[in-house]
Structures are given as C-alpha cells and as structure tokens.
C-alpha cells in the first residue's frame, strides 16, 4: 500500500459452488500469511470492488478446455508472480481455463473429473489448493511460446509487472508462431483446445514406430481377426518386398510397369510416372517414396474409401513423414494415434532370437541393428509425442495386441477428448 492506495494485482476466480469471495494475493504477497485482523480490514474495504470485478469476469469469460503438451511445476518457475497460486500439471492432462485476460497467466479450475487421469492428485501438491477453492495460475500460450523461443533463459521478474520476461541477455532463436514458420518446423506444442465427445469409433487407427518394432504385425492381426471392422490400404512399398493382399483392401499406386503375374487394381494401380508426379504435387498422396527408379505411394482417397465402408482404416505411417500425421489429424480422418515403442535393447535382443529360433524369420539382425531400432524409437517419441493418444512398449506382441485392443474398445464405450476442430 503506497500513498493510501491499495494495488490489487490479481483476483483468482472462485468455483461456482463457492459463495464467498477470497482474496489470495496482493502485490504478489500471499494473504494467508498475514494476521487475521489485517486480512479482515482489507477484505471489508474491498469487498464491493471485488464483487463487481468478479461479476464482470463471470459475464465475459469463456470456458475453454485444453490438453497440455508439456509438464509444469510452479515451484520451478521463476516467472510466476506467486508460486503458491500456481498449479502443477503433467503432459496429457486436460485443464479447464476460466480466464485468459492476462497475456502471461491463465486461470484454471481444479476439476479432476475433466481429466482422463487423476488430475486432483497433482493439484493438491500446492498447499493452498483445497476442494471448492479458487482458481490457480498456469503460464499462457503466449508466455510459453516466448519462453521456448529463446535458447538462453535469463529471467528477470523484478520489474514493475510480476511474471514478465526481461528483454536482457537473451539469444533469440525464433519468435511468435503467427509470424514465423520456424515454430512449425520445430514442432513446438504448448496447449491444444479440446472438446468432450460421446463414445464413437475412430475413422482411422494410426500405428507409428521405428522399423522392426512390430507395428505391421499388429495391424495385420487386427485385420485378419476382424475384417468387417478393420481395413487398410496397401502400405507404401519403399522397398517393394512386403505387400498386403487382403481381399478388402484398397490398392497402392506405382509408376512401374506390372509384372507378368500382376493385374492393374489388385495389389497396385499402375500409372505413368508423369501422372503420379502430378498427383503428388497436387497433394493427393498421404505418403510416397521411390525405389529403384519407380515411385510408390498411398493415395488419400484410398483411406477415405475404407472409412466409407464403415470400417476403421489402420495405417502404419512412416514416422519420417510429418506431413502424414498433420494431414490425418483432422475431422475427415479422426485418427487414434498409437506409438509402438521399442523395448530395452536386452529385451529386443531376446525377442529377435526367439523369432529366429522359431523359424518365423531368417533375417538376422546385429546388435548394431537392434540398437539403431531402440535409438530411433526414442527419437520418434521425442519428436512426435504430442501427436500420440497412446504409447505401448512392445516387449511382447500378444500383450501389446491386448493393450491396443482394450484401448480401441474403450473408444466405443467411454467419452473422448478430441481437438476442438473436430467438433466445430
């Protein structure tokens, strides 16, 4: 308080069930640490002002739900104006945002039932959070974008506004997503707005994983066991060695000439190279590649044709093709994206030995090959984790299949959080 003026820095919104009003901080100072008679005097003089401000908040704010793509702990944040007011969350949590007027700090309500995991447990880590209490603070999209846009992070929150970034001692890497495509290339993800949907069957099931982790085996097992519910396109044959020839599947496309035992439209649709190149340029292919001078690819329309039969189209997408993930993650395809992670090197070595001894494969892999699979799996997870709805470590193919099958059945039985663009 200076010159008989009281600076009210921030008002945290109360939950709808709370009738009383609570002033938790003034000038970045926790009110709970002050004597009762001081708090009472301040609240008496400010009660009408706070009530008016809160009424304006309730009239103007829009409830928004977001999925978090990073972990956050307010006690490790040097920018937050009051650590006790911050709320801890983990990657994948669903948060309900009730106020975004502050450009740097959003307010959320700790409502555990909105999350697929036990969000309330993480919230109670902050000592001030009580059931039916006030909203808490999390960094805004704007603040996190700026924070991640600098390689060096020399923060200074001693200025006139709490929780802002100092303009000193920063090495700029990139700026705002709206002004620079670098953010898209670096796959920086902060929050994603989502909506809750009733149970429904996803149009596509996308399996992603390093070479040799078993994603194709899982895909084929699903289709063989339930061909009326699942289908697929012919995989992009980058090496032309493994072709899917199920009766109900759509064909792939290639620019090579058909062999003697091949017919157009069975395993492949054969077109000229110039025609295929034109379609690739027009964006008609989900993915494509070249082998021995010939082009191979999967057309987007072939996926939609499987979906239009009422089946879920299963795809094992090449993880190097980020475009494929971005194309699929729309209301047109509504994918459920599952990352098939490689197990530890020792486990992978034992699994490979078992399939060789059983005569399932004659291809021998060296320790260097197996280590490359493990390393590639870790790289894919780091780069594209924000796309994944589920992660399954394939240390046993039967158990991995059961986990995937259980997850798919839940989609038909339980509500789902999906990107807001799928709904509106």
From TrEMBL:
Signal recorded as keyword: yes
Which SUPFAM superfamilies does the UniProt entry name for this protein? Answer: P-loop containing nucleoside triphosphate hydrolases, SH3-domain
Q: Which residues form the SH3 domain?
A: 61-148
Q: Where is the Guanylate kinase-like domain?
A: 202-409
The record lists the membrane-crossing segments as none
Q: Which range is the signal sequence, renumbered to this chain?
A: 1-20
| UniProt similarity note | Belongs to the MAGUK family.
Which named protein is this? MAGUK p55 subfamily member 6
Originating species: Diceros bicornis minor
Q: What is the lineage of its organism?
A: Eukaryota, Metazoa, Chordata, Craniata, Vertebrata
């Amino acid at each position: 308080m200076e010159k008989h003026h009281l600076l009210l820095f921030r008002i945290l919104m109360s939950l709808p069930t709370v009738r009383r009003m609570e002033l938790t901080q003034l000038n970045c100072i926790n009110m709970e640490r002050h004597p009762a008679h001081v708090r009472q005097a301040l609240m008496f003089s400010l009660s009408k002002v706070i009530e008016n401000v809160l009424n304006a908040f309730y009239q103007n704010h829009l409830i928004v739900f977001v999925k978090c793509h990073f972990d956050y702990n307010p006690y490790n944040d040097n920018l937050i104006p009051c650590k006790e007011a911050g709320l801890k969350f983990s990657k994948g949590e669903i948060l309900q945002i009730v106020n975004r007027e502050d450009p740097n700090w959003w307010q959320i309500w700790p409502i555990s039932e909105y999350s697929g995991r036990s969000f309330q447990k993480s919230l109670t880590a902050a000592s001030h959070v009580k059931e039916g209490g006030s909203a808490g603070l999390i960094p805004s999209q704007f603040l996190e974008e700026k924070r991640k846009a600098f390689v060096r992070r020399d923060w200074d929150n001693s200025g006139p506004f709490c929780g802002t970034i100092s303009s000193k001692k920063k090495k700029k890497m990139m700026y705002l997503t709206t002004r620079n495509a670098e953010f898209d290339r670096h796959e920086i993800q902060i929050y994603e707005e989502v909506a809750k949907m009733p149970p429904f069957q996803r149009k596509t099931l996308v399996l992603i994983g390093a070479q040799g982790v078993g994603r194709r085996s899982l895909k084929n097992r699903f289709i063989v066991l339930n061909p009326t519910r699942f289908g697929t396109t012919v995989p992009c044959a980058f090496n032309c060695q493994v072709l899917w020839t199920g009766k109900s599947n759509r064909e792939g496309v290639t620019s090579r000439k058909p062999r003697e035992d091949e017919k157009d439209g069975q395993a492949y649709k054969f077109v000229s190279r110039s025609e295929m190149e034109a379609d690739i340029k027009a964006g008609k292919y989900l993915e494509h590649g070249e082998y021995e001078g010939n082009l191979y690819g999967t057309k987007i329309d072939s996926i939609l044709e499987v979906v239009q039969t009422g089946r879920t189209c299963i795809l094992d997408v090449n993880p190097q093709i980020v475009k494929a993930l971005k194309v699929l993650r729309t209301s047109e395809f509504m994918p459920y994206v599952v990352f098939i992670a490689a197990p530890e090197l020792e486990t992978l070595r034992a699994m490979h030995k078992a399939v060789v001894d059983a005569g399932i494969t004659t291809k021998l892999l060296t320790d260097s090959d197996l280590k490359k699979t493990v390393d590639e799996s870790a790289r894919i997870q780091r780069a594209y984790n924000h796309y994944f709805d589920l992660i399954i470590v394939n240390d046993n193919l039967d158990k991995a299949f059961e986990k995937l099958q259980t997850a798919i059945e839940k989609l038909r039985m339980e509500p789902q959080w999906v990107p807001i663009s799928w709904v509106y």
